[in-house]
Design goal:
heterodimer, A: mainly alpha, ABC transporter involved in vitamin B12 uptake, BtuC, two-stranded antiparallel sheet, 2 strands, globular, B: mainly alpha, 73% helix, transmembrane helix (chain A), Branched-chain amino acid ABC transporter permease (chain A), membrane (chain A), amino-acid transport (chain A)
Chain lengths: 289, 291
């Protein structure tokens, strides 16, 4: 039963990773920006939700505020940090350092106002009940599964059917040609940040309800998203989501074999192994060395 | 008070060595290592164990720290040869996270979370150099030697070849440069020097644990290099002094509660990194107008 229990919590963790990783992968795939401040967006969304609930807001409004804040954070990053750097032809390195700086600054700001400790939004959704003997499940798992399926469905539909979605895919292939056809690469970049940032919101809210969120959660989310994007194969949304799910499940199941302290390291060990032996990831096109 | 200042200067010197060594990788070789604190830690643990078990001689311990750290740098050299850009950053992150777990779990070598305590007072050729003033001089000499090594190497054909790889790897390769060998050598040199810094760090505190070698520390070192100026000799020093003196100055500002100093400092260096990258990507000591 321990196995099933761990599998269940693995799926729940994995879904959160899948959502954040998909956002990261979408932004990276479309704009080639290594959005390390993705974790900062996650923390902003989580704390916005927490603060609204503290203020006595009804949860759908709190969710809305959380979405607005996350999307705003994404847009501000795209317009005020990445755009000026790219205009001056900043290298990958420059973008990375700037984004890292922003995430450090956001983390310390939140630490200053809310403290280092983790905050939790209490909800009846986390009340676990015994489903079969020895297996305890909380309704939040079902909510997480449902929300993520709906969201992935919407994003995939958008990318395949809508013109803007087509534009995003074109942006990843050839930004120059895109401009030549009269599409605006700048607006599409912002759009990628809007969708990518919105995808972390449900993950942030579910985290704040289930295990609680803390200022340093952001860097963990960023690291896992990054790992999942590479393990899944850069440029593949499906790959990133599946890899996120996979890393979440492994992280939990591995407890049956090794000590708990090692569970986080296992994800990064997998990442390291993938970079060494299969840098193209599970679903990616082959990469040039 | 005088001891406090001496201690601060010693720490700034040690971090200057670390930042200068990271600059060999980031600034000259274009290897964007985000696991430098791991090699700092390897040097610290190796040097500390040597002092605990054999003899607390700074010079010998530093050499051991450099050898261990330099040898294990091959772990990061491997992915550096295979991938670049974001893939290499991710590999570095992987190494950093796995490394920190090993540090905190390998109790017999590192003392786990409790760390290594009671590292004996430093000696040099049998003389006690553990007083704050004497140890500062030892660290300054180490810094000067490291800078001299870096400067000589980077002025040599080795350094020029490295910079050509940084600027255009394919072009360097087509001119017959042995890219894998050069990159590996740069890696070994940078990590060996940070190993020395780690050993000095261990002697200075007489206590080390895993807290000093986390991802945050790697970022701090990276921030020192970037804020100071990538690829310059003086840049990392300016960055290190700046980022270490900053919290010391903040303690004298009355309206910041002492418990929040770390947070405020983080905010300042985070924002500085972002703002500098937008307006002056070459850093404080960098050439203006550079890309």
């Amino acid at each position: 039963m321990l196995f099933l229990q761990l599998l269940a919590s693995g799926i729940q963790t994995g879904i959160l990773y899948a959502l954040t990783a998909a956002g990261f992968a979408l932004i990276f795939g479309a704009t080639k920006i290594f959005h390390v401040a993705h974790g900062a967006t996650f923390v902003i969304a989580g704390y916005a939700f927490y603060e609204c609930i503290q203020l006595g807001m009804w949860w759908p409004w709190a969710t809305l505020v959380s979405f607005v804040m996350a999307i705003l954070a994404g847009i501000l990053m795209a317009v005020f940090i990445y755009r000026p750097i790219q205009r001056s032809e900043g290298s990958f390195f420059t973008v990375f350092v700037a984004a890292f700086g922003v995430s450090i600054a956001v983390q310390s700001l939140i630490q200053y106002f809310f403290g280092r400790g983790s905050v939790t939004v209490s909800s009846s959704l986390t009340m676990a009940s015994e489903v079969i003997e020895g297996l305890y499940l909380a309704p939040i798992l079902a909510v997480a599964i449902g929300v993520s399926i709906v969201l992935f469905g919407l994003v995939v539909l958008f990318l395949e059917k809508k013109n803007a979605g087509l534009g995003l895919r074109a942006l990843s292939e050839n930004p120059g040609l895109l401009e030549a056809f009269g599409l605006n690469a700048k607006n599409l970049t912002v759009l990628a940040f809007v969708i990518g940032s919105a995808l972390v919101v449900p993950a942030a809210i579910l985290t704040s309800i289930s295990i609680g969120i803390q200022p340093s959660s952001g860097s963990k989310v960023m690291l896992i998203s990054l790992a999942a994007t590479i393990v899944g194969g850069i440029g593949s949304l499906k790959g990133a989501a599946l890899a996120g799910l996979f890393l979440g499940i492994i992280e939990n199941l591995v407890i049956t074999v090794v000590d708990t302290q090692w569970s986080e390291a296992v994800s990064f060990f997998i990442l390291f192994a993938f970079i060494m032996f299969r840098p193209s990831g599970l679903f990616g096109a082959s990469v040039k060395r | 008070m005088i001891n406090y200042i001496l201690n601060l200067l010693t720490l700034a010197t040690i971090y200057s060595i670390a930042a200068a060594s990271l600059n060999v990788l980031v600034g000259y070789a274009g290897i964007f290592s985000i696991a430098h604190a791991i090699f700092f830690g390897l040097g610290a643990y190796a040097g500390a164990q040597f002092a605990l078990l054999i003899v607390p001689d700074v010079l010998l311990a530093s050499l051991i720290g450099a050898v261990v750290s330099g040898a294990l740098s091959l772990l990061l050299a491997l992915p550096a040869l295979r991938v670049r850009g974001e893939y290499f950053v991710a590999a570095g992150l992987g190494l950093q996270m796995v490394g920190i777990t090993i540090f905190s779990e390998a109790h017999s070598l590192t003392g786990g979370h409790g760390g290594l305590v009671g590292i004996p007072a430093a000696t040099l050729f049998g003389f006690d150099v553990s007083s704050p003033g004497a140890f500062l001089i030892v660290c300054l000499v180490a810094l000067l030697l490291s800078l001299a090594v870096i400067q000589i190497l980077m002025r040599s054909s080795f350094g020029r070849a490295l910079m050509s790889i940084r600027d255009n790897e394919s072009a360097a390769e087509s001119f017959g440069k042995n890219v894998p060998l050069l990159k590996t050598l740069a890696m070994v040199v940078g990590c060996a020097i940070v190993g020395v810094a780690g050993t000095l760090f261990a002697f200075n505190l007489a206590f080390i644990n895993v807290e000093s070698f986390t991802l945050e520390q790697s970022i701090l070192m990276l921030a020192m290099v970037v804020i100071g100026g990538v690829g310059t000799l003086s840049g990392p020093l300016i960055g290190a002094v700046f980022l270490l003196i900053l919290p010391a100055i903040l303690t004298f500002i009355p309206f910041i509660p002492p418990t929040e100093i770390g947070t405020v400092q983080q905010f300042i260096y985070g924002s500085l990194m972002a703002v500098l990258m937008i307006f002056k990507p070459s850093g404080i000591a960098g050439k203006t107008g550079g890309k």
